[in-house]
Design brief:
Blueprint: E1 5-9, H1 18-28, E2 34-38, H2 48-51, E3 56-59, H3 65-72, H4 76-84, E4 88-92, H5 94-98, E5 110-114, E6 129-135, E7 139-145, E8 149-153, E9 160-165, E10 170-177, E11 180-185, H6 193-198, H7 209-220
Parallel strand pairs: 1-2, 1-3, 3-4, 4-11
Antiparallel strand pairs: 5-8, 6-7, 6-9, 9-10, 10-11
Length: 222
């Protein structure tokens, strides 16, 4: 049986190193994805025909929502159709913001906002940092963070809250969208060791990779 195909965005709406880290996370997951980069800096264009071959589309981290969305707004309906028809969307940091609605792809039963602006946030600046999360019921971890979102949901929304920040706001969630699923995370569980050292941060003794792979599993579940 051939391995499922994952498309990872690479282009002006991301930052060097982010697509590559997401691609490695997907390759190392139990699903063993074949990965192609999609977008202006990728192997294939980000178009309906390319997505028809994929099981998952991943939107990595990058710059600000305001700077990035203009590069992707003309792909909004293509991405929405892909997920609605049964595909999986995986968004990290900026990719989480982009899953929201103001502006964004409108994939969530709610929206996103800056975690650093919430009451009780443990990070209050938009630079590189470590953020504490509770992943699942028990695992408390520190993950790489750079002004990532939190996610709020409408009352009664169907959702699997995967992780929360220490102040209780949602840090990662999986929700249905049409026949597909959307998984988003504010911090960076895909971050490699050099992200921490290059930013002058201490390297957590436990990697976030297994948490990222758990999010992949959740968004791929049927």
């Amino acid at each position: 049986m051939s391995k499922p195909l994952a498309l990872v965005y690479r282009g002006p709406a991301t930052t060097k190193g982010c697509p590559e880290a997401v691609a490695e996370l997907l390759r190392s997951s139990r699903h063993g994805f074949r990965v192609q980069y999609a977008g202006p800096g990728g192997d294939v264009p980000l178009k309906r025909k390319s997505l028809e071959e994929a099981a998952l589309y991943a939107q990595p981290g990058g710059g600000t929502l305001e700077d990035s969305y203009p590069h992707l707004k003309n792909r909004r309906e293509v991405i929405r159709d892909f997920v609605s028809e049964g595909g999986a969307y995986l968004g990290f940091c900026l990719g989480g913001y982009l899953a929201g609605a103001t502006p964004g792809f409108g994939l969530l039963p709610g929206d996103t906002d800056q975690y650093i602006e919430t009451d009780g946030a443990t990070v209050e600046h938009d630079g590189n940092a470590l953020v504490k999360v509770r992943w699942g019921m028990f695992r408390r971890r520190k993950l790489f963070f750079q002004d990532g979102p939190y996610f709020w949901l409408k009352d009664g929304a169907k959702a699997n809250v995967v992780a929360r920040y220490s102040n209780g706001e949602i840090a990662a969630v999986v929700t249905p969208f049409g026949s597909g699923r959307v998984g988003v995370v504010g911090p960076h569980p895909e971050a490699t060791r050099d992200w921490f050292t290059d930013a002058g941060l201490s390297v957590p003794w436990r990697s976030g990779t297994k948490l990222g792979q758990a999010l992949v599993d959740a968004v791929m579940a049927r």
